[in-house]
């Protein structure tokens, strides 16, 4: 008897993420009462295990009895009204909504706000569908059959989405019927890739076996669909929830047995079913799995347990005659990260076999290669949600560079390195950068990224933040970017403002470069804001004391001081007493002799001695006399 385990059986990405985040929340919040809003996933064994760990399931926020609490949002997602209520009550929460479900929420909310009629293909009683409907004010039409399309009234604009676990074949029929009836329908294929792959795989497996077992919760929508699909091709198909539901006669009559499982079925339940088949003296998949460790091949993915490590290597027991070794460069892409921050002794770790023998009898393993395969889902999520991802510039190639993102090689064109043109791309080699995924094709293994798009988004955020908080009179720190004859432009957080030459100094200056230069960090005052024209007026001198306000006890009538001649007028000469303080020597006070004009006696830039004969601080005036100095 032969048993074949479906390669797509068990937890999907979204469910595993929800369970992992919940277990992490339990570990990190032992002082809090933890609730889940509805069943975290559709598997009673998982929810019962969470209950034993102190997690309580609720259907209404009013059931929260402890102020010091944390609520887990289930993988199926919830309506926007629930999120709003949680925020309004100030309750801390962890959002475990499957990323693919979150994408549907964004689509539905956006299209609903633009006047589209939302049509959801799915089970109207399923929590995922209930949650999606809550992002369009619960006004969606919910259908689950192509015949229902004919009964729909005509709408100018409709948006069609599907429950992530809906039957792919039925979705296709409904989608085609919608296209026939509505010329202006926007259709989003939101069935999860994992669901589609699982459904295709279970059909192929069901065609090959005598008996088909589908393991999963009896209330699990995706498990029920797997059971229905498998039964079409294998009449002897059984939906079981755990090993206790497995009947001996079901197994003994079969030569080949296919095993699949829903997205919310944990691995340990699958193993229990297989172990029971072993007890019934059948050939089980777990034996084959164990044998595979004794005949390892390069490229094979296996699980092992960390038995020890040092700064450069991790040693792993993989059930083989020799232990495996993961070198640090095969463990993580971040060379600055310590091995001890990544693994602990006893950790279960999934690795790929690189070499059977490193020359010393050890098996060479790589965790990076396994993570890279899984990280395609992260890149797909980042592409769909338009979120930035970290990368490292690995190679400069013709037309751009190769950027490693989560261990996956992506191409970045030279034109997308920066907002401005970059001449020397080599200077970026080995740099850590943030980028956006702008093209993604998993089948073709093609990823294109852009640092420019990331920088433009960040710049827009800074600009929006500035205009949101900026006020006239506010002091800000900026950097001088460029200088012109009429002033200096300063970057004050993603936006440029102008310090006019008259606002740079209390002293008279001929050019802004006398006060500032590009690259200077300066504190400035916002003098005026014009958002419509994107103009910002700044002042530098306003951050300094006004010179006339500091001289009350510094200068007195009768004092003889030194001053510099700065400019002439027909009626006299203006002299600089100190920075920002000018005085006038009237033509009659320049010399005992009669002169026609000040330049007959004085020169610009000349330092002279003069006597203060009058001071008027409120009017910022000072009168001086040269001829009275020696009297």
CATH superfamily of the largest domain: 4-hydroxy-3-methylbut-2-enyl diphosphate reductase, catalytic domain
CATH class placement of the largest domain: Alpha Beta
Low-confidence spans:
282-290
- In spatial order, strands of the major sheet run 13-14-15-17-16
Radius of gyration, in Å, reads 37 Å
**The CATH topology of the largest domain, please?**
Cobalt-precorrin-4 Transmethylase, domain 1
Instruction: Provide the structure class.
Output: alpha/beta
User: How would you sum up the global shape?
Assistant: elongated
Q: Would you summarize the structure shown here?
A:
With 631 residues, the protein is an alpha/beta fold.
Verbal overview:
The structure is a single chain. Strand 21 and strand 22 (446-450) form a beta hairpin. With 631 residues, the chain is an alpha/beta fold. It has a 5-stranded mixed barrel. A 5-stranded antiparallel beta sheet has the order 20-19-18-21-22. It has a 5-stranded mixed β-barrel with strand order 23-24-25-27-26. It is built from 14 helices and 32 strands. The termini are far apart. The chain folds into 6 domains: 1-98 and 192-295, Cobalt-precorrin-4 Transmethylase, domain 1; 100-191, Cobalt-precorrin-4 Transmethylase, domain 1; 296-370, OB fold (Dihydrolipoamide Acetyltransferase, E2P); 386-456, Nucleic acid-binding proteins (OB fold (Dihydrolipoamide Acetyltransferase, E2P)), CATH 2.40.50; 470-543, Nucleic acid-binding proteins (OB fold (Dihydrolipoamide Acetyltransferase, E2P), Beta Barrel); 551-625, OB fold (Dihydrolipoamide Acetyltransferase, E2P) (Beta Barrel), CATH 2.40.50.140.
């Amino acid at each position: 008897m032969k048993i074949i385990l479906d390669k797509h059986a068990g937890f999907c990405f979204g469910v595993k993420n929800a369970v992992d985040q919940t277990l992490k929340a339990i570990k990190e919040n032992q002082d809090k009462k933890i609730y889940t809003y509805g069943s975290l996933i559709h598997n009673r064994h998982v929810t019962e295990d969470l209950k034993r760990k102190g997690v309580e399931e609720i259907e209404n926020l009013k059931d929260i009895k402890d102020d010091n609490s944390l609520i887990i949002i289930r993988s199926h997602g919830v309506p926007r009204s629930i999120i709003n209520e949680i925020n309004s009550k100030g309750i801390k929460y962890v959002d475990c909504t499957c990323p693919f479900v979150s994408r549907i929420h964004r689509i539905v909310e956006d299209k609903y706000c633009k006047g589209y009629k939302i049509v959801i293909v799915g089970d109207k009683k399923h929590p995922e569908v209930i949650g999606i409907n809550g992002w369009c004010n619960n006004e969606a039409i919910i259908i689950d059959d192509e015949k229902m399309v004919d009964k729909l009234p005509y709408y100018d604009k409709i948006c069609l989405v599907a429950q992530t676990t809906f039957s792919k074949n039925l979705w296709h029929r409904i989608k085609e019927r919608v296209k026939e009836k509505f010329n202006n329908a926007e259709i989003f294929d939101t069935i999860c890739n994992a669901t589609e792959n699982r459904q295709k795989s279970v059909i192929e497996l069901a065609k090959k076996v005598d008996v088909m077992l589908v393991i999963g919760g009896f209330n699990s929508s995706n498990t029920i669909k797997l059971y229905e699909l498998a039964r079409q091709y294998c009449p002897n198909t059984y939906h079981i929830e755990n090993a206790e539901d497995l009947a001996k006669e079901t197994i003994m009559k079969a030569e080949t047995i296919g095993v699949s499982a829903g997205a919310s079925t944990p691995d340990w339940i699958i193993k229990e079913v297989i172990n029971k088949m072993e007890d019934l003296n059948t050939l089980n998949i777990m034996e084959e799995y164990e044998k595979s460790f004794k005949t390892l091949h390069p490229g094979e993915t296996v699980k092992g347990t960390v038995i020890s490590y040092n700064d450069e290597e991790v040693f792993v027991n993989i059930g083989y005659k020799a232990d495996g070794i993961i070198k640090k460069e095969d463990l993580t892409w971040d060379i600055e990260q310590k091995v001890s921050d990544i693994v602990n002794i006893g950790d279960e770790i999934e690795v790929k076999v690189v070499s059977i023998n490193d020359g010393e009898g050890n098996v060479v393993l790589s965790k990076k290669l396994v993570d890279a395969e899984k990280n395609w889902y992260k890149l797909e999520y980042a592409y769909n949600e338009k979120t930035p991802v970290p990368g490292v510039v690995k190679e400069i190639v013709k037309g751009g560079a190769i950027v490693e993102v989560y261990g996956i090689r992506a191409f970045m064109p030279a034109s997308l390195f920066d907002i401005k043109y970059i001449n020397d791309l080599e200077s970026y080699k080995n740099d850590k950068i943030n980028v956006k995924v702008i093209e993604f094709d998993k089948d073709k293994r093609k990823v294109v990224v852009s640092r420019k798009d990331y920088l433009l988004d960040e710049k827009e955020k800074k600009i929006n933040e500035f205009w949101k908080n900026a006020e006239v009179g506010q002091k800000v720190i900026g950097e001088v970017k460029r200088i012109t004859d009429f002033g200096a432009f300063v970057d004050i957080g993603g936006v440029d403002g102008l310090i006019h030459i008259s606002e740079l100094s209390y002293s008279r200056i001929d050019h802004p470069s006398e006060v500032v230069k590009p690259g200077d960090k300066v504190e400035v005052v916002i003098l005026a804001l014009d958002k419509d024209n994107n103009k910002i007026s700044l002042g530098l001198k306003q951050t300094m004391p006004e010179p006339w306000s500091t001289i009350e006890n510094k200068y007195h009538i009768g004092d003889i001081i030194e001053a510099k001649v700065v400019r002439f007028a027909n009626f006299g000469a203006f002299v600089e007493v100190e920075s920002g303080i000018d005085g006038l020597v009237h033509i009659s006070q320049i010399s005992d002799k009669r002169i026609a004009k000040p330049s007959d006696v004085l020169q610009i830039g000349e330092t002279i001695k003069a006597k203060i004969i009058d001071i008027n601080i409120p009017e910022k005036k000072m009168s001086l006399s040269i001829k009275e100095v020696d009297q």
